[in-house]
Design a protein that fits this description.
Number of domains: 2
Distance between the termini: 30 Å
Structural class: alpha+beta
Helix content: 25-40%
InterPro entries: Lon_prtase_N, Lon_prtase_N_sf, PUA-like_sf
Strand order of the largest sheet: 1-3-4-5-6
Protein name: Peptidase S16
CATH class of the largest domain: Mainly Beta
CATH architecture of the largest domain: Roll
Pfam families: LON_substr_bdg
Order of helices and strands: EEHEEEEHHHHH
Strand content: 15-25%
């Protein structure tokens, strides 16, 4: 995990964090998420995160189904905070950065902030296990996961580095596949909120199997 800070528990993270609402974006502990930042409010968010020293940004999905104001959508109650571990300036006003996931959080409340970006008071304690790397990975059905991955690749005529996949620990494998999966916000949120790695893998397997079955029935094997 390319991260200098050593977060050993929920008490080492701030109670109030900036949040970046992004539909379909799934960040998980110790996963890496690339971001292309160009909106002025989020450029300011990155600047403030760096200036404050914590370098933390909370990734969270907007809850469109319960939103009345599209300009300020409701948020799901669970997100994942990440630390800025790579940052580059594009030369045209953008930031190209990478977040490394630290831990999930529950939103207690959104605060009335003076910043253009949104901030929330959050609770990391329900996800204290996120601070323990590779916890529960021995319970993952790796064979079933690789089988459904193979079916997905064949259905979409895709190739991957199987040597790299086979050498990856279960936590890294499950979380990377979940983050890269082509599914919608509801499925991504279900994987985010899974109580443990085993359940997250089971959700990913079930969603993929259902999607493959649906595409096979319709004669369209291309997942979008």
């Amino acid at each position: 995990m390319p991260i200098n800070a050593d977060y050993r528990g929920p008490g080492e993270l701030p109670e109030i964090i900036p949040v970046f609402p992004l539909p379909g974006a799934l960040l998980l502990p110790r996963g890496q998420m690339p971001l292309n930042i160009f909106e002025p409010r989020y450029l300011a968010m990155v600047d403030d995160a760096l200036r404050d020293g914590h370098r933390l940004i909370g990734m969270i999905q907007p809850d469109i189904s319960h939103t009345r104001d599209e300009a300020r959508p409701e948020l799901f109650r669970v997100g994942c905070v990440g630390r800025i571990t790579q940052l580059a300036e594009s030369g045209d006003g953008r930031y190209i950065l990478e977040l490394t996931g630290v831990a999930r959080f529950k939103v207690i409340e959104e605060i009335a902030a003076l910043t253009a970006y949104r901030q929330c008071k959050v609770d990391f304690f329900p996800y204290a296990d996120d601070f323990v790397a590779r916890k529960g990975e021995e319970e993952v059905d790796r064979t079933a996961l690789l089988d459904v991955l193979n079916d997905f690749l064949k259905a979409n005529n895709l190739k991957v580095d199987w040597e790299g996949i086979e050498s990856a620990p279960n936590e890294a494998l499950v979380n990377a596949l979940a983050m890269m999966s082509p599914y919608g916000p509801a499925e991504k949120q279900a994987m985010l909120e899974a109580p443990d790695l085993k359940t997250r893998a089971e959700i990913l397997i079930a969603v993929t199997e259902m999607d493959l079955a649906k595409k096979g029935t319709s004669g369209d094997t291309g997942l979008q």
